[in-house]
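Hi X.,

You mentioned you wanted examples for the new student's onboarding notes, showing what a folding record looks like when two proteins sit in one file. Here is a clean example. The first protein comes first, with its sequence line followed by its structure tokens.
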Amino acid sequence: MLNKIMKLGGKKFNKSDQDNTSGVNTVVRSSRPTTAAAPPSSTGESQSAAPSPSQTPNHPMFTAPPSLEVLPLLKDVSSSDRPLLFMKKAHMCSCQCDFSDSLIMPREKEIKRQTLLELVDFLHSSSGKVNETMQSELIRMVSANMFRCLPPAHYENTGAPPEGNDPEEEEPYLEPWWPHLQLVYELLLRYVVSSEIEPKTAKKFINHTFVSRLLDLFDSEDPREREYLKTVLHRIYGKFIFHRPFIRCSIYNIFYKYLYETERCVGIGELLEILGSVINGFTVPMREEHVLYLVKAILPLHKSKGISIFHQQLSYCVVQFVEKDYKLADTVIRGLLKYWPLTNCNKEVLFLGELEEVLDVTEPSEFQHCVVPLFRQIGKCLNSANFQVAERALFLWNNEHIVGLIAENKDVIFPIIFEALERNMKGHWNQAVHGLSENVRRMFMEMDTELFEECEKQHAENEAKASELLEQREMTWKRLEEAASLAAN
């Protein structure tokens, strides 16, 4: 069978063979053996260097290929010849195709796509035994296709400042060569999850450099690619235990770079989604390292301008920390108050929603530590001129767990909130806010009538003092005006 493969390898296509593609399984484009990297293509797809003889197996199949050669299907050869044929196909798929025009190289594109599909099916099948040499060639091919220069961001192309672009309104960039790239990702995913692949062997190829370059691809504008990256990285984290600290540290470094350098939020949501699953597996009590990253890397993400893109994933991570270790509730709540928005109402609504989720898993003992600064901020939200902010703050009283926490600390909370409620009752322009404020006020009264009356009395005294001070101020200004007029005369 091996002799048959070698004979077929020397056969060239004539014109009739090129017209009849149905009988062609795989094809190799001609190339010159070199160790230098090929120049980048005009399509933005990186050109990988052709493997040197030292990088490829010492076998005639891996010499510089002719213009075109036909390879049989993996299932049609004997098991002894299958490894060499697999490496030949993987080596062939390292070549790049020009996707700038659909009319360029249509036959080669289809043949490469079919070959990648065959490799995916081979890894997925029960007969897909992959030795160390095959793995090396496979990862080399995956790297040649995946690791490339990414196209610039939209604002880098248009010249517009990054802060003037709303990421939610931008149309995502879609890779033109995704039909091939998707299969490469699928091939890598099959390789990582395969039970036939031993981590001790695979770590020679899935090393720190590979993982680092994989993380760099999260900057891709194509959401389909980021979704595959998320799945692959999560599987690597689960299978390669020795890579876990490095992956966590690298993700946090990406957050630092985003916060203090680029402010480009592409891929942050997917990384937070991975991190949420990672946090769920942390042991209790929480290690000091994890708490440090919560304070230094995760909570500061709340100050981002593009938080609306990844807030759902960020909120999930924060709540996971509190669920894992209830003692972190005070740290998280004070962190939210530290980065609380002052002029962005939409962001404030997001913060109130996240605050409710955190309070829902907060223990009474930790709630007492931050009750005063927390409800001072909630009181400001109650009096917000934006009805959505005021309404969202009042909705906190619809949560039974939060109402229970408030009831246990009513002596501290009532005096802080009562004034804000009275101000809403007297002067808020929105009827819905007015009605909700009245409901909360009634709830307070039913909770502790004596304390409510005391707060009402205190509020009346404060109002009287404020009126008196206002009258004194007006009298002082009046005397100053009279003195000024007498001096002028």
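Then the second protein repeats the pattern, sequence line and then tokens:
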Amino acid sequence: MTEKQFNVGIVGYGLSAKVFHIPFIQLTPSLKLHSIVQRTPKPGNSAPEDYPDLKHYTATEDLIADPDVDVVVLCTPPNTHYPLTRSALLNNKHVLVEKPFVPTSGEADELTALARQQKRVLCVYQNRRWDSDFLTVQNLLKEDKLGRIVEFETHFDRLRLTALAKGSTWKAGLKMDEAGGVLYDLGSHLLDQVFVLFGMPDGVTGRFVNQREGRLVTGDGTDEQEPDSVTAILSYKNKGLLVFVRAGVACVETRQMRFWVRGTKGSYHKSGLDPQEDHLRAGGKATDTDFGKESEDRFGRLCIVGGDGKVEDQVCPTVEPETYVRFYHLFAKAVASGKEEGVPVPASQAAQVLRIIEAVRESAKTGSEVTPQA
């Protein structure tokens, strides 16, 4: 019996579509790249030139209304995600939305309910759940190599002392109220991974900084109070666990910290980012034999308490990557089944992560620990 193919329409033709979605759609047997929306194709950056056999649109509403499109993938700025997702669902499309999902948890809840009403799959592209370093951390915790976890640090630090020019990209223009800025862009990745590991925290403390100018800021919605860096502390009272989430632009390191996990039996220290994004940006393909694989010099360090009570320091190999191919495989299966429980990153989970983000913002404004809304 031939596997049913679902026609996929892509909205947006920037880096996200070209690097993170189209190559993986083409590797997924049950998905067929059908159409692309690009508002203003130009020579050298033209979806019609790159994919002459596909259907092409310059208006999103035309693709959403196309009865031949089964799945809509939104690769647009986050301030457009709510209305476009709502429209696609009302037109009976399955929807995959780039992160950050939407500006508020209330909007996420509404879209979750609408997807259920329409009996359509709604998924958020939190691809870093399939980073090999994160999968290594998951394995260490699952196998109880580190004992009871007492502190967990997760970082996305860089040396970026010059801000993006206004208008050069949506990331340079959107504020937090529009799901822009470091907390929604990078923080949503880090907080999503923490949510996967530990669930909802009992308390959240957040601090915002403009590291480029050397100012603490509140993130109150004005331009001068927008942060370029964030630190959040998540407390899990019943676990006796503190989680530190950090993303900054003034970190001078040859190898940037990624994870530092401390437990009663051991600790894990990892530097550097998962290599998949760099591989793809450099023109590599997910079918390359070395795709997603780390070289030994990038492996993390594992310290464990030996049988004699002494601490042993050893190399901790990064697990063989499942890669972002796995995400699309799971997403395609969910589309075929139509069942929410099969969705790799359900909108309902993205809503929970948004509640943590909202608690970070509230704490940064008030200076107090905040309990995330249920």
